[in-house]
Amino acid sequence: MAQGPVFLTAADCQRLLSHLDVVAQIERALAWDAAGTIEWPTPRSLNIIGDKWGNDFHVKMCVLDSVPVGGIRVVSHPLDESSPVNTRLILLVDPTTAWPLALIDESWSYVQRTVGSIAMAARHLANPDAATLAIVGAGRLARTAAEYYSRLFSLQEIRVASRTSARRDETVAALSAKLAGVPVRSADSIEAAVRGADLVLTATSATTALLEDAWVGPGAVVACVGTAEPGRELLERADLFVVDNRDQLRKELIAEYGEGSPDWIDATVLEIVTGKHPGRTDQAQRAVLVTEGIASQDIALAYLAYQRAREAGVGLELPFGAAAPGFEQP
Predict the structure, then answer these.
(1) Measured between alpha carbons, how far apart are the two ends of the chain, in Å?
(2) How many CA atoms lie within 13 A of 182 on its CB side?
(3) Is the domain of 189 the same as that of 304?
(4) Cβ atoms of 159 and 131 closer than 8 Å
(5) Which residue range is the domain that position 149 belongs to?
(6) What is the DSSP string of 48-101?
(7) Is the whole model's pTM more than 0.85, yes or no?
(8) Cβ–Cβ contacts within 10 Å for residue 235, how many?
(9) Does a structural domain hold residue 328?
(10) I need a surface site. Which of 9, 90, 159, 219 has the fewest CB within 10 A?
């Protein structure tokens, strides 16, 4: 009888995976993509953007041939994607048998992958001595991102700006307690946080531009989780505009900036990491990174959690099909 699938909670994933595991698995997924060993559907994403209740639905999938494992990622959330009320599940399947391996709540790992992939890409783009990080936003993504940046860079200062001063100050206090040795300061405005910063991260639910081109100095690397956050002027004038996937971001860029905006893209993260694109060729060049997230990284991370769970005997066994008591093959 086949072994039934296992259910892993977000807390299980948090216990099983470290920050270094997350970054290493993201880079592994990029290497598999570069080698052409990931199978993708057409189209890559099925979306209902705003149903009559105001929620978004996404289904993404791929097969990681190198493992091998298949993954189907199912997401639904209110328009404010930072809402704690959401559905984020990954179904892992053995592609050689089509048998389900695991059902994983990726509420924790989604956040880790989102900011882990951004920090990893920023590391490949930034100057070696980058030491000042400006964060625009004070939510879960912003706080988690600060942890990743502090592990990948030798930070000497973190500045936090937010529309809500109380939440900003809470974030500063939380990060100060967690990131011992790195001064974390409140900034009275986005401009005050960004001017002179080597690294800039915008992690908000904003649908309008947060940054002005004049605030971003030579050599800075700006990373944004939303297409609107950097603004037209900065995107057009940046020396290097990098995205995680051209096709995936095309619709959003056109909707935000018009038909010609996809032509602004200079490279993808994959091209930078694998050396197919040289990245910045001068330390004074300014780079802007906009990422949406690639399902292969989420599925690779889910599979690593599943491997660790099986080794540790963690997770809830689910009765399924031939593995379920009393099941009779028709």
Answers:
(1) 16
(2) 27
(3) no
(4) no
(5) 119-290
(6) EES-TTSEEEEEEEEEETTTTEEEEEEEEEESSTT-S--EEEEEEEETTTTEEE
(7) yes
(8) 23
(9) no
(10) 9
